[in-house]
Specification:
single chain, about 350 residues, globular
């Protein structure tokens, strides 16, 4: 019986059960196609292609995923105009990581069950599992819809976010075609192929892996500023490569904070973008962690104080995001994410 199993055995049995519904062949083909295309990139190197990779990597990975999918849509770290929200969401969709509805729902579930049995991608189930294999078991359509309703009801109300899911694959075909024809018509065929393989395939593989490293590496290696109840760590090289997302222990301690770097050396490029948007009048209600709250969490002697800190964060969240987080009864059951 399940109750007779040890905790590691239970986790193994649960992970094995995730394959009982088959494989997510579309996702497997998509990931495989991108990696095969990335292998061709060195044969079509140009400096223009490299610059394109860096610029589009930042636009889709830094702005689209880190700033958009993560800090704006998932945690409500700041507010912005609806057209800007849609534009940033489109950048995120062009990062190859799936529709915003699914991304946000999975990430909210991760925070509720972080490194527990129901965490979608915990390294406790294996490093490679948390990095990318967790994407490959099949999730039947009814379960996916239930995931969206439970963890991302606020995004379900937004028709643009729903359409970004429908247009996820077509958007990439359009983007790849534009890159190829701009390079070909602007220069020559070799430049067109360089733009395609560097600006599309290699760029997508880079953005995918730096995001996946947040799920895997920053729950295994690094240092901790806060004693959270999960395995989150701050890892400097993920912090640099993933535009500030690598200061993951800080993020798990203060999930809604727009700024993930709390020490002077913890450079957070994504927060810099949010700060610039705020100065330009494109962002407001930016959530920040007061230094007194940081000291209170660090020096707290009772977990109740830390639970109150987290509930205070949720209470100050934008109403639609707050309702989505609290809609899951699992939140109350999971307890505080920070303890001593």
């Amino acid at each position: 019986m399940a109750n007779d199993l040890s905790v590691p055995e239970q986790r193994t049995a649960q992970k094995t059960g995730r394959w009982s519904k088959g494989f997510e062949w579309g996702t497997i083909f998509w990931i495989g196609l991108l990696h095969v295309g990335a292998l061709a990139a060195p044969f079509f190197f140009t400096w223009q292609g490299l610059v394109l990779l860096v610029v589009l990597g930042w636009a889709t990975g830094g702005l689209g995923i880190c700033l958009g999918y993560h800090r704006l849509l998932t945690h409500g770290s700041f507010e912005t105009y609806r057209p800007m929200r849609w534009l940033i969401g489109t950048f995120g969709a062009l990062a190859g990581e799936g529709p915003p509805l699914t991304w946000v729902a999975v990430h909210r579930k991760h925070h509720i069950y972080s490194d527990q049995d129901d965490d979608p991608h915990s390294p406790r189930d294996g490093a490679w599992w948390s990095h990318m294999i967790w994407l490959m078991p099949r999730t039947p359509s009814p379960e996916l819809k239930q995931l969206h309703r439970r963890y991302a009801p606020d995004l379900l109300k937004d028709p643009v976010m729903r359409w970004l899911g429908i247009l996820f694959i077509p958007l990439h075909f359009v983007a790849g075609s534009i890159l190829f024809f701009v390079g070909w018509l602007g220069w020559d065929l070799n430049m067109g192929l360089s733009f395609l393989f560097w600006g599309m395939f290699l760029r997508l593989v880079y953005v995918l892996h730096i995001t996946w490293f947040v799920n895997s590496a920053t729950h295994m290696w690094g240092y901790r500023n806060y004693e959270t109840t999960d395995d989150s760590r701050n890892l400097w090289w993920v912090g640099l490569l993933a535009y500030g997302e690598g200061w993951h222990n800080n993020h798990h301690a203060f999930q809604r904070s727009a700024r993930h770097g709390h020490r002077w050396w913890e450079f957070d490029m994504t927060y810099g973008s949010i700060y610039l948007m705020e100065r330009l009048g494109l962002a407001w209600n930016v959530s920040r962690v007061d230094s007194r709250r940081v000291k209170a969490v660090t020096a707290a002697s009772k977990s109740k104080l830390l639970e109150e800190e987290e509930l205070e964060e949720i209470a100050s969240t934008a109403p639609d995001v707050r309702e989505a987080i609290l809609a899951s009864s699992a939140y109350a059951e999971s307890g505080s994410s920070v303890s001593v």
